[in-house]
Design a protein that fits this description.
2 copies of one chain form a homodimer. The first copy, chain A, is of the alpha/beta class and about 450 residues long. In chain A, the strands form 8 sheets. Chain A has a 5-stranded parallel β-sheet. Chain A has a 5-stranded parallel β-sheet with strand order 11-18-12-13-14, with helices on one face. In chain A, strand 27 and strand 28 form a beta hairpin. In chain A, helix 1 packs parallel to helix 7. The first copy, chain A, is globular and about 75 Å long.
Chain lengths: ~450, ~450
């Protein structure tokens, strides 16, 4: 019986195990990992904000899942890989494998700021983090959240929900800076501020102040009071396990389109690995839960003897910011500029249902086309509903390289209580199409 | 200045006028039609059920729209076309055209049932119908709705909402019979019944009984009491205008992929016309509002001198049945069987958000693949939310002939409050993929 060993049981590892089982039912599968529970880190801000009522709602005991699926679970830390002998070492034993999947995930990073070692400073990445923050919230009045990514924004919203005065600090010129154009970022930041969260941005933290416990955060000379601080300053790939092996890394474990590393029979998936962007052909990090699941699936199939190709990640994502849904996929204007691609942007404002139907809410679609070949290369959607469906359509459209002409002719469904008769994606494509036509006419006239 | 004349100002005609204007801003556009208002007939059941508060919410005065867009509006009935002279006649005048778009829409049909001429029997297709039904509802206690299509179901729900005891009568073996497989139809009918609407099906109406006013409907020997009856028994294309011309019809006006009729310069769009299905290559009726809008757009561009191709209709649609959303696109099992195509079905039950998130509701995805080439040819989705987005993705997937393998690797977005980490379309594709793999192995073993 062939042996598959998987290191780490997060989204990637667990999905890989189940996919491998379905691919080769006689495979002997072992998961090795330290965590007692399986859960999505994305759920943690909502547990903190008490939108989700307790950890038992999001966490399943790992041993139970493995038992139900006839997978061996060893709750120990994996220490080293011997790729020649094809064995994995934990502290107490050596585990042989025919194929190995590394899905060790990532870890939250705290930048080297003076005072970062004070009490009441937390990351928000594991269940234990939420437990600690929960304790600190009792009696706290003010909080600073450092880092304006999805977890930072959701963490700030959670603390606000718990009654604290919250300031969100972002070193770059905008929160969610990497993921949207400035037009949409203005809308996003206005929403956050309108809900009573202060934003301080474009400035780095000089020092975290306090005596034992944090008291304030100093940004560009100004002290922001803080009884507690959440450092949502990013996640890095956990790749300590592959140190000293021949497995190639570039910040994360490099894998090919079968998610195999440079060592035959050793695969990697999820936050610890990196694949090439289908838009640029370059290694591009994606620390999304969906990427972990999608990669886990492919790695599981291949490690079990199947053959599946991973086409890469467009970083399709959605974040709920109070009642606003913001989603995106592919390139932003800035990404395109960095690749030297001239873009034509199409926009449309429409509604979540027929405009006249009670409860209809605004939604805005923005599409980015490569001016040279008229292909869709990116999209952003903001609205008070219906954003997930639009991003899922646009992720498929980008991945299939749809042209602006094809998007103007998209088929879609309609009924007044659920969707308008004119589709926002189609209207945004029409807007871009007219711009492209005008550009072509102008080029014709001047040539 | 070239003259474009459009007959009929519904979804197709109005969209065509605006698209033509954008294509050639110097075009002289005239719309000829009898209706005073522009509105979506799909909204009428919701006005009847008072979910939408009055007609002024859904209707815009036609003359106002035309004035705002510099379009001439002649509120008269078009009587005949002289395709040689390139003129259109109304009762009072002859209007010359360079190009013509026929978008005369459809009309509600009442089958020749004995007693169908009694008082308090209505169709539900125009604003005037709703006004009449509204009057009849006063003092009424019971109603029968004949026809289990979308309008029939929505009409029945509206009357139920107004406090009447409602029976829905469908001659075929299921309501919405043409659009879903029997597995999903059972769910749909159970929902309708659980909301207190009786369904009588698989039996034809023998007679409508009453003395002047309707009193009951007799179906297979049983009398169903009815103070009023809605006949939602279908819509036929309005093609009287083209009688006596050389324009080819097949129940509706036949058009090519540019939506031009067999007469050069004369186009047709919307309910009055018929195009070929991209799945079968055969003329296939589609009486959807989305089709009218999509066709109007293409016809408008082409009639204004542009060149756009219509790829056909997959009949993507969604219906809201109380809190249940039911959507579909492409082939059903029955459609595939009629074309001699063997299908493999994949199914997955999932949730509208992360399973553990408060308010997560069930959603089920069903995918139909052609067993021979593994391409997606149809899909059905039922859920208490999120169905529109899934159908829109699947409409694109069917139109781009995606394979089961491609669908297992779909990129999508995720955040616990809005969407689960495992996507229902991907899971249903995985389910079908495993079935296809097993079929292949079996074929290998027996060959």
């Amino acid at each position: 019986m062939k042996k598959l060993v998987i290191v780490g049981g997060g989204g990637a590892g667990l999905t890989a195990a189940l996919a491998a089982k379905k691919t080769a039912s006689d495979l002997d599968i072992t998961i090795i990992g330290c965590e007692e529970f399986s859960y999505s880190p994305c759920a943690l801000p909502f547990v903190l904000g008490k939108e989700i009522d307790g950890f038992d709602k999001i966490a399943t005991r790992f041993s139970d899942i493995c038992k139900a699926n006839k997978i061996t679970f060893i709750q120990e830390e994996a220490v080293s890989i011997d790729e020649k002998k094809k064995t994995l070492r934990t502290k107490s034993r050596e585990v042989p494998f025919d194929s190995l999947i590394i899905s060790t995930g990532g870890y939250a990073v705290i930048p080297p700021i003076k005072g970062a070692n004070l009490q009441n400073i937390y990351t928000l990445y594991r269940i234990s983090d939420v437990e600690k923050i929960n304790n600190a919230v009792k009696g706290a009045k003010t909080a600073v959240v450092v880092g304006g990514g999805a977890i930072g924004i959701e963490g700030a919203a959670a603390l606000k929900h718990l009654g604290l005065k919250v300031t969100l600090v972002e070193g770059l010129e905008y929160v969610l800076c990497r993921f949207f154009g400035t037009d949409f970022l203005d809308v996003i930041e206005n929403k956050i501020k309108s809900e009573g969260i202060d934003i301080v941005k474009g400035k780095n933290i000089e020092e975290i102040l306090g005596d034992k416990k944090v008291r304030a955060v100093r940004v560009a000379g100004t002290e922001i009071p803080a009884d507690l601080v959440i450092m949502a300053t990013g996640v890095r790939s956990s790749i300590k396990l592959v140190e000293g092996t021949g497995i190639e890394v570039a910040g994360a474990i490099k894998v090919d389109e079968r998610l195999e590393t440079n060592i035959k029979g050793i695969y990697a998936a999820g936050d610890c690995s990196v694949t090439k962007s289908p838009l640029t052909g370059k290694y591009t990090p994606s620390l999304l839960g969906t990427t972990a699941v999608r990669e886990g699936n492919i790695a599981g199939i291949n490690a079990a003897g199947g053959n599946a190709i991973f086409e890469g990640v467009l970083n399709a994502m959605v974040v709920k910011i109070f009642d606003l849904e913001v989603g995106r996929v592919g390139f932003t204007e800035k990404d395109a500029a960095a690749e030297g691609i001239e873009v034509v942007v199409g926009k449309a404002k429409t509604f979540t249902k027929a405009e006249y139907f009670p409860g209809a809410k605004p939604i805005e679609v923005k599409l980015l086309f490569n001016a040279a070949n008229e292909q869709l290369i990116g999209a952003e959607v903001i609205g008070e509903g219906g954003v997930v469906g639009k991003i899922d359509v646009l992720a498929l459209a980008v991945s299939k390289k749809l042209s602006v002409g094809e998007l103007t002719k998209l088929e879609y469904c309609y009924t007044p209580p659920l969707a308008p008769s004119h589709n926002g994606i189609v209207q945004a494509a029409e807007n871009a199409h007219r711009k492209i036509m005008r550009l072509k006419e102008r080029a014709k006239r001047t040539s």
